[in-house]
Design goal:
disordered C terminus; alpha/beta; seven-stranded mixed β-sheet; 8 helices
Length: about 260
């Protein structure tokens, strides 16, 4: 089972958290011994953060009216996202396998996976550039590849570091800027690999997409994820694609970087 929760509901006031929906979802699967996957979305963004005069915001033209959010490299936005992920991991829930003992959420045996959404983005992608609506991320004031990369890595660490026992995956789609080579999606895959791929042992993070389609990351005419799946950048056998069926019954493709 997958539960999706938006930031505005998980932290309606600064430092005041409400994880009751996630707790109820865990309690619902426990009698059936089913696993839970958590998608903690960095949107809708709480007004107390968007209205902060020190926060740089922009608008993501998602479905409908879209949403306003701090840019992915905004320091205050990142700090609050890191605090939220830490608080979620430490939130105490009942573990029926231990007679109802309260344990940190990160230690619950039925918590299987967490999605690592980058703060300030609807996954790693630029909806404005793909859809032709709104201002592309690379045209946003103070944009640079270094700033974006640092923000994405910090957002990913916020989940990876606080949920060490779970499978972690980053939603990764097509994204470009004005630099032709390497393309931005290639650059970001390389940065994620360098940061989280240790070459041995358990995977540190994966890359997730609804499907490996032409609408996904596009580098040199083909999907970055397909290139990673079949290419030879990592040692053979270290990169795998997994299929899983989520709560909405759509097939997902997960590239595991081990």
């Amino acid at each position: 089972m997958t539960i999706a929760e938006g930031w505005v509901y998980a932290e309606p006031a600064e430092g005041k958290y409400d994880f009751s929906t996630i707790e109820k979802s865990l309690a619902a699967v426990e009698p059936y011994q089913k696993n839970l996957t958590i998608c903690l979305f960095p949107f809708p963004v709480p007004n107390w953060l968007n209205n902060d005069s020190k926060v740089q915001t922009y608008k993501v033209p998602h479905a409908g009216p879209g949403f306003t959010t701090p840019v992915p490299w905004d320091e205050r936005g990142l700090a609050r996202w890191e605090a939220l992920c830490k608080a979620l991991s430490e939130y105490r829930v009942k573990d029926a396998s231990q007679g109802g003992k309260l344990v940190p959420l990160r230690d619950h045996p039925l918590l299987f996976a967490v999605h690592c959404w980058p703060m300030g983005m609807n996954g790693i992608r630029d909806i404005a550039m793909v859809s032709g609506r709104g201002t592309p991320l690379h045209a946003t004031p103070n944009y640079s590849r270094d700033a974006l990369t640092t923000g994405i890595l910090r957002s990913t660490h916020a989940m990876v570091d606080h949920f060490p026992k779970q499978f972690r995956c980053v939603p990764f789609f097509r994204i470009m800027d004005k630099v032709a080579s390497p393309s931005l999606d290639q650059h970001l895959v390389s940065a994620l690999k360098k940061e989280f791929w240790r070459g041995q042992g358990a995977p540190q993070v994966g890359l997730l997409q609804e499907n490996l389609s032409a609408g996904g990351p596009n580098a040199s005419g083909g999907s970055v994820l397909i290139q990673e799946k079949s290419g030879c950048s990592p040692p053979p056998g270290r990169v795998h694609v997994y299929r899983s069926t989520m709560a909405d019954s759509r097939k997902r493709e997960i590239l595991r970087i081990s």
